[in-house]
Amino acid sequence: MTAVTAAERILLGLGISDPTEIDLEAIAWSRGALVEYRSLDGCDATIVGSARKAVIAVNSRSSPERRRFSIGHELGHWHHHRGRILFCGSKDVESPEDDALNPERHADTFASDLILPNYLLHPRLRKIRRMTLAVAREIRDEFSASLTATLLKTVQYNRFPLVVVCHNKRKRRWFRRADMVPGWWYPLEQLDRATFAADMLFNGAAEQNWPRKIGADAWFNFRNCDRFDIEEQSFMLPGEEVLTVLTIPEDGLG
Amino acid sequence: MTATKKSPADEQLDRIEDALIETILNSSEAELREDMKARGKDPDKCLAEIDSLIARAKTDAAKWRLERAKAELQDWRAGKGNVVGFDREAARAKFEKIRARDPELASKMLMAARNGQGLSDNDMEGMLEDLAKLERLDGEDDEDGKK
Asked: What residues of chain A lie within 8 A of the CB of B73, using their CB?
């Protein structure tokens, strides 16, 4: 059983039993924080806080999912770093890069738990037999989250043998692996041109409707990896990046 | 403030209530179960009913908290949150004071500005307005505390 996180405790304390009830502005108010929307130039969100109250400003030009994540992120700061003035740029909010000491990552974790709480997400994931982008998008819509945040939480749940990896044109930016996937499934630093992801990123190819089989050696380079076929499905992210969901076959899980 | 004096009948009722509670608290689980059975009631069924009643009351109270937050927010937006204009100089002075106390904020602002990603005049203006709003929110909290 997963322990209840601080963000989930807040949701439970407000009787939230369905993702549609996650009204972030009301939740913020219940914690003493007012949410405002306005056009911001140099950052995605700001928080101005005293010991008891806070005003959170979110960039009105961001997408609705991004705005939601920014509110959750600033509430994370409010929870962890009360009584301060903070401004968070685009790289501070919803960045999947690993850095346990970075306070921005603590705020991201809080936001993710608030928008995609385990106690609502896990029962939903347990009903799914196979994870595809179409399924992930359905869940994203139910929780009004971003697709990236939905996939990261899905990987963390460790029900599916997934590796989620993000590349730009030069290199791998980050990746996450479900705990059930052994460590030798370590994605290559550079995108192999044979992958569907590379076709999308470099040639503007359209997204695949369904995960496609590909030799594992296009994505990994451990010994004898060429004897496995894996499944690949990608989508484009803003800023010329591609995010790929790789499904590892059962006989590759060791 | 003067306390309202209770009538002798009310005082008697209070004593009976206290005695009943004390009896229940001093009884063992086995004694309570026996007592219930003697009254023709199923103790397990009674406990399940009470548990479910408590769970429902907790959920209702939690949902009420969310509804109250929604209503309060709406009231704020229609009232004090709608106030136009603020003392810009006072807000700027307050911001500078906070910045001087918070080296992390000062250094982040400096770094962002060096990288061409600093706060614009528009962002700064918004932040000053937020500070003024924060003061109103804090003030309202103080007023509520005095009530």
From this structure: 25-26, 29, 34
Pairing of strands A45-49, A54-59: antiparallel
Closest CA to A50 of A21, A91, A81: A81
Cα→Cα distances B126→A215, B21, B106, Å: 53, 58, 18
Q: Please state the ipTM of this predicted complex.
A: 0.83
- Closest by CA to A201, choosing from A165, A240, A171, is A240
- Smallest Cα distance from B111 to chain A, Å: 12
Kindly state whether B96 is in contact with chain A, defined as any CB-CB distance less than 8 angstroms.
no
pLDDT(A89) > 90: no
Percent of chain B at pLDDT > 90 equals 33
| Biggest alpha carbon–alpha carbon distance for chain A | 59
pLDDT, one tens digit per residue, over B92-129 is 888 888 888 887 877 777 777 676 677 788 888 898 99
Question: Where are the domains positioned within chain B?
Answer: 10-62, 86-147
How many Cβ atoms sit within 10 Å of the Cβ of residue B9? 8
**How does B128-139 read in b/e, with b if 16+ C-beta sit within 10 Å?**
bbbbbbbbbbee
Contact B134 A55 (CB under 8 A): yes
- CB contacts of B145 in chain A (<8 Å) are none
Of B62, B123, B126, the CB nearest to A13: B62
pTM value is 0.84
